C-alpha cells in the first residue's frame, strides 16, 4: 500500500507542477498584447512585400524598355524597306539579264 501511496503522491506532485506551469503560461498569454504583435508582423510583411514588388517591377520595366528598343529597331527596318522601290530594282535586274 505504501508503494501505491508513494506513486500516487509522485503523480499528484507531477500534476501539481504541470498545473503551475500551465497557470504561468496562461498568465503570460493573458498579458501579451497580440494586437501590437499582429500590427508589427503586418507592417513587416507589408514592408517586405513592397521591397519584393519593387524588385519585380524593376525587372518588368527593364524588359519593357528592352522590348521597346527592339520595336523601334524593327520599325526603322520596316520604314527602310518600305522606301525601297521594288519595281525600279526589278526593272534594273531585268535589263541586266537581257
Per DSSP, the total helix count is 3
Which radius of gyration do the C-alpha atoms yield? Answer: 40 Å
Strand percentage lies at under 5%
Silhouette: rod-shaped
| Oligomer class | single chain
Q: Low-confidence parts lasting 5 or more residues at pLDDT below 50? A: none
Helix content: over 70%
Please report the distance between the alpha carbons of the first and last residues: 129 Å
Number-wise, the strands total: 0
Largest sheet: none
Q: What is the averaged pLDDT score?
A: 91
Task: Kindly describe this structure.
This protein is mostly helical and 98 residues long. Helices cover 93% and strands 0% of the residues. It contains three helices and no strands. The protein has helices at residues 2-30, 34-83, 86-97. It is rod-shaped, with a radius of gyration of 40 Å. The termini are far apart. The model has no long low-confidence stretch (mean pLDDT 91).
Short description:
The protein is an all-alpha fold and 98 residues long.
Which short descriptors sum up this protein?
rod-shaped, 98 residues, 0% strand, 93% helix, mainly alpha
Q: Secondary-structure blueprint of this entry?
A:
Layout: H1 2-30, H2 34-83, H3 86-97
Amino acid at each position: 500500500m505504501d508503494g501505491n501511496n508513494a506513486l500516487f503522491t509522485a503523480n499528484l506532485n507531477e500534476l501539481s507542477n504541470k498545473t503551475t506551469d500551465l497557470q504561468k503560461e496562461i498568465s503570460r498569454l493573458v498579458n501579451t498584447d497580440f494586437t501590437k504583435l499582429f500590427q508589427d508582423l503586418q507592417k513587416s510583411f507589408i514592408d517586405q512585400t513592397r521591397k519584393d514588388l519593387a524588385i519585380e517591377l524593376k525587372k518588368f520595366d527593364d524588359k519593357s524598355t528592352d522590348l521597346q528598343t527592339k520595336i523601334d529597331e524593327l520599325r526603322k527596318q520596316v520604314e527602310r524597306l518600305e522606301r525601297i522601290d521594288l519595281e525600279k530594282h526589278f526593272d534594273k535586274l531585268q535589263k541586266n539579264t537581257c
